[in-house]
Amino acid sequence: MGLAVMLEIPLVVINIQRGGPSTGLPTKTEQSDLLQAYYGRNGECPMPIIASATPSDCFDVAFEACRISLQHMTPVMLLSDGYIANGAEPWKFPKSDDLPEIKVTFKKELSDGEEKYLPYKRDEKLARPWAIP
Question: CB atoms < 10 A from the CB of 41, how many?
């Protein structure tokens, strides 16, 4: 994950946290991977971390994780746990036309004043342009 942050690779890491220690899942669930999600990388390696609150919230936070990852060229960790994963609630799947657009801009040509492609030149969000392989 630290390498993905340094290379500015947009990806989503989904961590469905396991049951607690001792007697395990039959007696309790817990968010035991939270500190690993916060600090489980080398040095000062910032990475967005978001978590779902309910089973129906999982879709929205997964969509938001993808949006953050693509717009800011960074990995994002999405947390959930066994309690949410095993839960259920009514939820209406949204139409794709109702979802907000995730704007991805590719660097296709040089801007005014550029003599060569600058892969780490930042925009107003401090994100770099995404080159087409």
Answer: 18
In angstroms, the first-to-last Cα distance of the chain is 22
Q: Which two tokens stand for residue 110?
A: 């040089």
- Give one DSSP letter per residue of 36-89, joined into a string: HHHH-SSSS----EEE-SSTTHHHHHHHHHHHHHHHHT--EEEEEEHHHHT---
Phi-psi region at 22: left, alpha or beta (left = phi > 0; alpha = psi -120 to 50): left
Q: How many DSSP H helices and E strands does the chain contain? A: 4, 5
Q: Which of 65, 36, 67 is nearest to 52 (CA)?
A: 65
* Beta bridge mates, 5: none
As a whole number, mean pLDDT of residues 105-125 equals 81
Highest mean predicted confidence (pLDDT) among 1-15, 56-70, 85-99, 107-121: 56-70
Q: How far apart are CA 75 and CA 6, in angstroms?
A: 10
Q: What structural domains and CATH numbers belong to the chain?
A: 2-98 (3.40.50.970)
pLDDT in tens, 34-44: 888 888 888 77
